[in-house]
């Protein structure tokens, strides 16, 4: 009997233990499902918050672009008036809020159709001389299937803005307007992109759509015709012999003894027969008509912006004359240098001289700078990159002392003729020689031609 009781007790404890394990398993499954529901709820809340934030951000951006200051005032008046009227029962506030809301609702239809236009902008010329204007043509077409309400076009011209009114346009119809761009200073001017503007008559709301097309207008510096014999001013006669001795050229110099590597074509047989040793001809290298124009670009070298423009025009006139005379020419100026490396970095900018148009386009993009090299350093780099120059012009402003101009000229080789053009609008035109350096002082651009003619004929 005692054995039977012990067995039953063990079975009872085992059954109880099994039931306890099932309860724990059920509790664990319930907890896991609850945790998963919490995680899903948190994820959904995060996604909803992200979507709401993006919607609010998009709406705020749209409101910032669309709602004008007057529209913001009317919106505040509508909100405050309706809330005060509904909460406190103030009829006057309710009427003011309702009227403000009605104004906003009536302004919305004027924003429709901003993308219905197709706009073509063409300029009569892409290049113009400083001080001259240019005309263009704007064609606006309604390419939608609905009528387009009146609107406005905004056309950026450099830092300015030109506005055009667009009338009521039926589907498929167009209107043509003439664009008059006033005289512009030298530079590269961006015309466009054209922007269509939709706005209500009161000015509460405004919607803009910008097109992608832009036009570049090159405003060239003013130039004057120069005499083709201007190189005679500094004795740059093409074909004259220089002091360099070479093994093959046109100007015979002397006969010397043969050295390994000499060409057999240059052997002088009569001298060889007389001396019994191989003798060869030696020549003086002929001058090549290679010209350099160095333009100072540092702001501290010029009195003001007008003086710098005079220097740019003088350099462009010299370069244009050389290109039209089919001369090899290098036009260099100082390049912009980052302030953090100023003094440790040297850089020059070269103006393309393949064609007159390319050269003048390059001059259009020039600007003086506070962070650039002095004209002396520019001359040094120009001389290092072009060893065989026959003539060099240095164009500077009135704030460069003649001693510094002389120092800049010493950067070129001895057999390179150097002339300096000093631009000073307060000075009278004159030509002087300082320690072998010819200095031309001009007050206007026309003075340059007169001084070069006088020097070439003297």
UniProtKB/TrEMBL annotation:
It comes from the Bacteria. Residues 1-31 are annotated as: Disordered. Residues 255-332 form the DUF58 domain. Keywords: Membrane, Transmembrane, Transmembrane helix. Residues 1-16 have a biased composition (Polar residues). Pfam families: DUF58. InterPro entries: DUF58. This is DUF58 domain-containing protein. It comes from Microbacterium testaceum (Aureobacterium testaceum).
């Amino acid at each position: 009997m005692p054995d039977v009781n012990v067995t039953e007790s063990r079975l009872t404890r085992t059954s109880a233990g099994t039931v306890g394990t099932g309860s724990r398993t059920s509790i664990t499954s319930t907890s896991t499902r609850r945790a998963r529901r919490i995680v899903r709820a948190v994820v959904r809340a995060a996604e909803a918050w992200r979507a709401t934030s993006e919607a609010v951000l998009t709406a705020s951006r749209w409101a910032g672009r669309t709602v004008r200051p007057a529209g913001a005032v009317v919106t505040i008046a509508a909100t405050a008036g309706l809330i005060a009227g509904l909460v406190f029962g103030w009829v006057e506030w309710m009427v003011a809020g309702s009227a403000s809301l009605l104004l906003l609702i009536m302004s919305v239809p004027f924003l429709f159709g901003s993308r219905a236009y197709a706009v073509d902008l063409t300029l009569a010329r892409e290049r113009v001389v400083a001080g001259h204007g240019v005309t263009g043509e704007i064609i606006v077409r309604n390419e939608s299937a609905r009528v387009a309400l009146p609107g406005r076009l905004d056309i950026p011209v450099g830092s300015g803005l030109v506005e055009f009114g667009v009338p009521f346009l039926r589907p498929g119809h167009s209107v043509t307007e003439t664009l008059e761009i006033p005289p512009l200073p030298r530079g590269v001017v961006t015309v466009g992109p054209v922007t269509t503007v939709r706005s209500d008559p009161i000015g509460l709301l405004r919607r803009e759509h910008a097109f992608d097309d832009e036009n570049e207008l090159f405003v060239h510096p003013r130039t004057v015709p120069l005499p083709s014999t201007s190189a005679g001013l500094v004795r740059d006669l093409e074909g004259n012999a220089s002091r360099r001795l070479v093994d093959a050229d046109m100007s015979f110099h002397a006969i010397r003894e043969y050295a390994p590597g000499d060409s057999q074509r240059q052997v002088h047989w009569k001298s060889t027969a007389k001396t019994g040793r191989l003798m060869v001809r030696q020549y003086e290298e002929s001058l090549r008509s290679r010209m350099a124009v160095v333009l100072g670009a540092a702001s501290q070298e010029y009195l003001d912006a007008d003086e710098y423009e005079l220097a740019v025009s003088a350099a462009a006139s010299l370069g244009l004359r050389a290109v039209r005379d089919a001369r090899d020419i290098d036009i260099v100026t100082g390049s912009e240098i980052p302030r953090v490396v100023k003094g440790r970095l040297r850089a020059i900018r070269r103006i393309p001289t393949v064609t007159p148009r390319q050269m003048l386009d390059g001059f259009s993009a020039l600007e003086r700078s506070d962070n650039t090299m002095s004209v002396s350093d520019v001359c040094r780099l120009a001389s290092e990159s072009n060893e065989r120059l026959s003539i060099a012009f240095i164009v500077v402003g009135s704030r460069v002392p003649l001693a510094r101009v002389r120092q800049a000229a010493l950067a070129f080789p001895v057999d390179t003729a150097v002339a300096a053009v000093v631009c000073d609008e307060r000075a009278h035109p004159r030509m002087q020689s300082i320690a072998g350096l010819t200095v031309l002082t001009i007050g206007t651009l026309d003075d340059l031609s007169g001084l070069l003619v006088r020097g070439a004929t003297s």
